[in-house]
From TrEMBL:
Residues 498-711 form the Peptidase S9 prolyl oligopeptidase catalytic domain. It holds the Pfam family Peptidase_S9_N. PANTHER family: PROLYL ENDOPEPTIDASE-LIKE, PROTEASE FAMILY S9A OLIGOPEPTIDASE. Residues 37-440 form the Peptidase S9A N-terminal domain. The keyword Transcription does not apply. Keywords: Hydrolase, Protease, Serine protease, Signal. Belongs to the peptidase S9A family. InterPro entries: AB_hydrolase_fold, Pept_S9A_N, Peptidase_S9_cat, Peptidase_S9A, Serine_Peptidase_S9A. This is S9 family peptidase. Residues 28-47 are annotated as: Disordered.
Length: 724
């Protein structure tokens, strides 16, 4: 929890659609399309641990000079796979184009965010019609002209890939610190812009992977660098106008290799918070924001399995921790005795306390009750005085949005459901009024009355009831096709939110279901713990049992279910096609984490040490080795029929390295006994999140939906025909 609070999440679990096509053809050059899929050469390689020897004939697909990938055999193989993808998808190009245009038609091209006050300025961002990226603006609260402060389109010009990372305006409003990645490698370069003159300062910090936090009266920034393994182990101070070589390291993590460091400011912006931790343990220090090189205050020394994050108000520490209850409690402490915590809100089996925010006259707690989001206003004088913000839909996604000021009586909220588009509200604290400021506009039209959403519970094989959120048209034929999505890892709860691209399936007669399986924290922290380490296979079993339960309840039929997932959700795809291949009509696995055992055995890979608390350490533990081996999708591929599959990868991906999906597909091609489609497309110029730009994302979504419709046998019918 602490790590989440204090870092700018530049990665996020990739639940979106992955990479675009590799440009195989060049202008003026005719390339003969392949007539058969590429076959990867098998080369002898094996390894042994704990007395167990495993052959890995596709090990060579991992470039030994990684992160540089320059082995011509590897690049030629990936290009051949991309050429096969292009050849097989070419007959579906008209469908892809049709889907792209209808998805694009649901997006308001010249869209903008709702302005929000921060100090003397109102800030917002806009898309111009036809633009891939945003422009950021501000104007004085007192009145005056709008000022363009950052143009992503200009920054992206000339780059195949662009991603804005940190974005931080100094408290005095003069400077903008931002960072950008131009190749998908998640190594960002930080720059500082003088908003009075419009000029960039000469200060340039390459290799960041963190937020940019203003301290010392807006004369300095705190940042963290990505090390050779894409982990941030430092909090470093840069004073404006000084050489980066003179920057001062405020903290460095040396005790735990898998820990990562993040920074942030307290509610009143008077303390710099330096947090370090991994997926299950955290440790926090405080230093004065106006004197960041002062001796830090350690809140409480790390204790394995104990997570906590802190804030400060008027000299009192506020601590959110799981030290005595799995669903977290809220406590207070003094700066003189920061490790002595007095409970304010006790942990609860029913209410999962996920976060808190301090404001001048009240504080807010967020959490989930029976899996549904809760936002609660609380009184400093009486912690038992709780004022919940009520929402009327049976299933929804709601939470605090952008609330930058400490002293305010209006809260900005974000809200959506599977049938309600993204909505921005202001909640007026004094009156309790919810004011709708903006709802996502769908230019091509959207009639909410055509759709219905349901939340059902389906028993897993161990008797656990797994919630499922479903959306479909009211006129959908019973037992029609159904698309099932899940993630199921790292305690990430997939919200029952709105999607315009999803409508392209729903309007063609599909139901769309989200399985809230264990491994996420949808129903509390125990829900997460029951899907990790030695209980990891609960995640896969839940997903399969949900699919079978939806068939039993008459939502669809066996073989008419398409499924998708990315990253750890791609691991889920790999596991369930091994165990229950006949359930699925089509499978899309984005940047799938499928070579689990090899990755967890390689401590030199970017994220491996930090991942051991999630998956187990097979280097040290024979039990962990055997358990991971029992489900690792790459290792469990067998000679059997597999469903049609589309797999994606990113050459620059530091999270799920490109060779995982490449090896998996190579092994599947070797042993599978069917003639179903198996396609691999590798983005040769991007990373984990695929191609940048909003229209490129739509194009990828159109390709995915086209593949599903093609393989489900419904590509030749229009949306209107299939909805009848």
């Amino acid at each position: 929890m602490a790590f989440k609070r204090y870092t700018a999440c530049l990665s996020a679990a990739t639940l979106a659609l992955a990479a675009p096509l590799y440009a195989q053809n060049t202008e003026g050059t005719h390339v003969t399309q392949p007539t058969s899929p590429p076959t990867a050469e098998k080369r002898d390689h094996s390894y042994s641990h704990h007395g167990i020897t495993i052959a890995d004939p596709y090990y060579w697909l991992k470039d030994q000079s990684y992160p540089t990938v320059d082995d011509t055999d590897i690049l030629d193989h990936l290009k051949a796979e991309n050429a096969w993808f292009e050849a097989r998808m070419k007959p579906q190009q008209a469908l892809v184009d049709e889907l792209f245009e209808e998805m694009k038609g649901r997006i308001k091209e010249d869209d903008s965010t709702v302005p929000q006050k921060d100090g003397d300025w109102l800030y917002w961002s806009e898309f111009e019609e036809g633009a891939e990226y945003r422009k950021y603006y501000r104007k004085p609260v007192a009145g005056g002209d709008a000022q363009l402060i950052l143009d992503e389109n200009a920054l992206a010009d000339g780059h195949e890939y662009f991603r804005l990372g940190a974005f931080s305006v100094s408290k005095n409003g003069r400077y903008l610190a931002y960072s950008a990645d131009t190749n998908g490698s998640e190594r960002f370069t930080a720059r500082i812009k003088d908003l009075q003159t419009g000029e960039l300062l000469p200060d340039e910090i390459p290799g960041t992977l963190s937020g940019l936090v203003w301290v010392k009266g807006d004369t300095a920034l705190v940042y963290g660098l990505a090390d050779d393994n894409w982990r941030v182990h430092d909090a470093t101070l840069h004073v404006l106008g000084t050489p980066v070589s003179d920057d001062v390291e405020l903290y460095r993590e040396t005790a735990d290799e898998g820990f990562r460091v993040g920074t942030g400011l307290s509610a009143q912006e008077d303390w710099l918070v330096i947090a370090t931790g991994d997926n299950e343990t955290s440790e926090v220090r405080l230093v004065p924001a106006d004197d960041p090189t002062a001796e830090p205050i350690l809140i409480k020394a790390r204790q394995k399995g104990v997570e906590y994050d802190v804030d400060v108000r008027d000299g009192t520490l506020w601590v959110h921790t799981n030290d005595d209850h799995v669903n977290f409690r809220l406590a207070t402490a003094t700066l003189d005795a920061p490790g002595e915590w007095t409970t304010l809100i006790p942990g609860s089996d029913e209410f999962y306390l996920t976060d808190f925010d301090l404001f001048k006259n009240f504080y807010v707690t967020e959490g989930r009750l029976r899996g549904l989001d809760q936002i609660q206003l609380r009184d400093y004088a009486d912690p038992n005085l709780v004022k919940p913000i009520a929402f009327t839909e049976a299933s929804f996604n709601a939470g605090l949005s952008n609330n930058p000021e400490y002293d305010q009586n209006t809260l900005r909220l974000a809200y959506e459901s599977m049938v309600t588009p993204d909505s921005v509200f202001d909640y007026h604290v004094d009156s309790g009024e919810l004011e709708l400021l903006k709802q996502q506009e769908i230019p091509s039209g959207y009639d909410v009355d055509l759709y219905t959403t349901e939340r059902v519970e389906i028993p897993a094989r161990d008797g656990t009831m797994v919630p499922v959120s479903i959306v479909m048209r009211k006129d959908r034929p019973k037992t029609g096709p159904l698309h099932l999505y899940a993630y199921g890892a790292y305690g990430y709860a997939v919200p029952p939110g709105f999607s315009t691209t999803r409508l392209s399936l729903i309007d063609r007669g599909y139901a769309y279901a989200i399985a809230h399986i264990r491994g996420g924290d949808d129903l509390g922290r125990k829900w997460y713990l029951q899907g990790k380490l030695n209980e990891r296979t609960n995640t896969f079993n839940d997903f399969v049992d949900v699919a079978k339960g939806l068939v039993d309840k008459g939502y669809t039929e066996k073989g008419k279910i398409s499924i998708s997932g990315g990253s750890a959700g791609g691991e889920l795809m790999g596991a369930v096609v091994n165990t229950d291949p006949d359930l699925w009509g089509a499978v899309v696995a984005h940047v799938p984490f499928v070579d689990v055992l090899n990755t967890m055995l390689d401590k030199d890979l970017p994220l491996t040490p930090g991942e051991w608390p999630e998956w187990g350490n097979p280097i040290l533990s024979k039990q962990a080795f055997a358990y991971i081996l029992s489900y690792s999708p790459y290792d469990q591929v067998v000679a059997q029929d597999y469903p049609p599959m589309l797999v994606t990868a990113g050459l620059n991906d530091p999270r799920v390295t490109y060779w995982e999906p490449a090896k998996w597909v190579a092994k599947l091609r070797e042993v599978k006994t069917d003639d179903n489609e198996l396609l691999l497309k590798t983005n040769m110029g991007a990373g984990h999140g695929g191609k940048s730009g909003r229209f490129e994302s739509i194009r990828e979504a159109a390709e995915e939906v086209a593949f599903i419709l093609w393989q489900q046998g419904s590509a030749d019918r229009s949306a209107a025909e299939q909805a009848k």
